Amino acid sequence: MDNVSIITVFTLSGLSDIANYRVILFVLTLLCYCVIWLVNVTIIVTVIVDKKLHEPMYIFLCSLCFNGLYGTAAFYPKFLYDLLSTTHVISYAGCFLQGFVLHSSVAADFSLLALMAYDRYVAICRPLVYHSIMTKQRVCILIFFAWIIAFYFLLMSTITTAILRLCGSHIPKIYCINWLIANLACSASVAKIVIPAFSYTFCFGNVCFVFWSYVHLIKTCQSSKENMGKFMQTCVPHLFSLTVVVVSLLFDLLYMRFGSKQIAQSVQNFMAMEFLLIPPIMNPLMYGFKLTKIRKRRNVNCIVNQ
User: Fold this and answer.
1) Which of 37, 50, 150, 206 could make an SS bond with 107 (beta carbons 3.0 to 4.6 A apart)?
2) Contact yes or no for 72/276 (Cβ under 8 A)
């Protein structure tokens, strides 16, 4: 009981052996974070400014890019500070806030990717009723529920974890997540088993919905060259985005649960950062180069600037 009252900060691990290349890592990380902001803000501003892009697919893409900025904001500023610091700690409240933002960002990613799959399904499989189904009002409602459901699940997880009695303060990672905080509990808890199960089921359900949508999309597109062209242009970037997110998360999740502690610390850190590095950069780049309207808009801006 006494240990509970004195825990005001958590210590983070993974950065103890970087003294010799601390500055190099700081510069590279800062560069990556700037690139993340550049590519995502470019897509967001392009969609907002160009009224021709005020369509469901691009609105969902804009939300996906905003979510990328939201999630990375919980990690990179703190990580950059830790790279230049000799002590790697985070406040009790800060740890839970970081965990909540990271978790809710991942959940929102899956929700938004599921909505984008539904949008493509209606556009290609039911084109005659697309505009009556995917109205701007309905799109806004779908995005709202995508965010609010993700927030609700992770808020419950965070609250359940926050009320635990903790008997330790060391987080074996470069950032906080609820599961690792729950591991510090003095006794077995619902937060460690049931709550994560709901979160994983939510994400898995979204992935299953996406694959179900693509089964119908592929069946529909096989009979029409025009539909196959639409599929290759708009669905391939979406499928790539989903694959990148799932693979990035699986690497970290499987290692965290079953991985060997003998793996080099630098490799552990990269796996921990992977879903905060690759998807936020690759998603806007893939859509920016693949989607015709965004590519044309970018080319027009380049010509005007010249």
Assistant:
1) 150
2) yes
